[in-house]
Design goal:
single chain; about 90 residues; mainly alpha; 3 helices
């Protein structure tokens, strides 16, 4: 991981794209119940808050390993949210 700024941008872009995909699904499926999609959005926002808090943690000794772990967590949680979006339809 190059630096903190790039990691924050990655978190913002990935989770922002997931939220946008949920909105697209809601727009394309107005007749379906939106409770499941709203839960996905809430989970994406909670994940964003959690990961940004981890990035801003200054008490970490090995920053490179810490940022790498955050990046892997972003990838796994992002994939899980995408799977949930795919199951909506």
């Amino acid at each position: 991981m190059a630096n903190k700024r790039i990691l924050k941008k990655d978190i913002n872009y990935v989770l922002g794209d997931i939220i946008e995909a949920v909105y697209v699904w809601e727009y394309a499926n107005p007749e379906k119940d939106a409770k499941g999609s709203e839960k996905i959005i809430d989970e994406a926002i909670a994940t964003f808050d959690e990961l940004i808090a981890k990035v801003n943690d200054r008490s970490v000794e090995n920053k490179k390993a810490h940022f790498k772990a955050i990046n892997q967590e972003l990838e796994s949680k992002g994939l899980a949210l995408i799977e949930k979006i795919n199951k909506l339809g």
